[in-house]
Amino acid sequence: MAEVQTVTGTIDSSELGRTLVHEHIFVLSEEMRQNYDTAWDDEEKIADAVAKLNDLKDAGIDTIFDPTVVGLGRYIPRVQRVAEQTDLNIVAATGLYTFTDLPHQFEHRGPGLLVDEPEPLVKLFVRDLEEGIADTGVKAAFLKCAIESPGLTEGVERTMRAVGQASAQTGAPITVHTNPRTGSGLVAQRVLKEEGADLGKVIIGHSGDSTDLDYLSQIAENGSFLGMDRFGIDAYLPTEPRVDTIVELVRRGYADRITLAHDAACYIDYFTQEEKAQIQPNWHFRHISDDVIPMLLDKGVTEDDIDTMLVKNPRRYFE
Asked: Any idea which positions bind Zn(2+) 1 (predicted)?
């Protein structure tokens, strides 16, 4: 058992239930929104998010982990208004989302830099975890960083090492956005381990974009969870090979290292709602419940395996 911070308060890990470990409520650029989106209606967006999350709850999901951090438009007051109107548990994150550089506020601050001080990112992440995010009263429950095709740039490495240090200091688990085509999940494991993070409390996100069973098995053998978390984003990999990969991983004995999600959002400003529905018609919160789980069961994955991936593994992430 462990305490888990949600947007509406603390729950026991046993109360997480069926959990999707990588979903977003709002992904947007607040600067672009405030300066250029003249049609934005906060009430409308909140109502739409509430309806989508209540529908997800009706589909049998009890909790989502929302890794929307700085760089993806995290704004907790808006998320709080959504959380107040749904029985779905929403678990918030801290961290920084960058594929290359740090925000300019950190360019000259840090060990050996113009303002020579301990890594300031660590202080911010720990504050979000232990004291709360801004003045919202909401505490982050896990950490998030990213490593993409540019690799371990200076900004990415500083962020990742700060996330590792904050995890080692607080015990908070970690989710990493990775690009499996570059093998970056293994790079993330190496760096986080060097900073004292427990790889058993790390989800290597977007592992589901890969069918490379040797790569995926190595990540699992190193102790981390495989984030099979982009169901519905067929542009990266269609559903059937994603399912077949999980079936084989389960056959190899890795069910206790697999987590599931869509990496979907109630609202994302990369596309209009119409474009999203046309380009990626399966990219919605019900795809796993309605389509993926029946496919897994048809291919021989057991109900107990599903329970392990959706319930037991998210609990173990915190416990």
From this structure: 22, 24, 144, 263
| Structural domains of the chain, ranges and CATH numbers in brackets | 3-318 (3.20.20.140)
Q: Residues marked as binding? A: 22, 24, 144, 177, 206, 263
Nearest-CA neighbor of 197 among 159, 165, 156? 165
- Dihedral angle computed from the Cα positions of residues 265, 73, 275 and 62, in that order, rounded to the nearest 10 degrees: 10
Encode pLDDT of 296-309 as tens digits: 999 999 999 999 99
3-class DSSP assignment, residue 20: strand
Beta strands in the chain (DSSP E): 3-6, 9-12, 19-20, 24-27, 63-66, 89-95, 142-146, 174-177, 202-205, 225-228, 258-260, 265-268
pLDDT tens for 3-45 read 999 999 999 999 999 999 999 999 999 999 999 999 999 999 9
Q: Which helix (H) or strand (E) holds 219?
A: helix 213-221
Give the whole-angstrom CA distance, residue 252 versus residue 228.
16
Query: Per the annotation, where are the binding residues for Zn(2+)?
Result: 22, 24, 144, 177, 206, 263
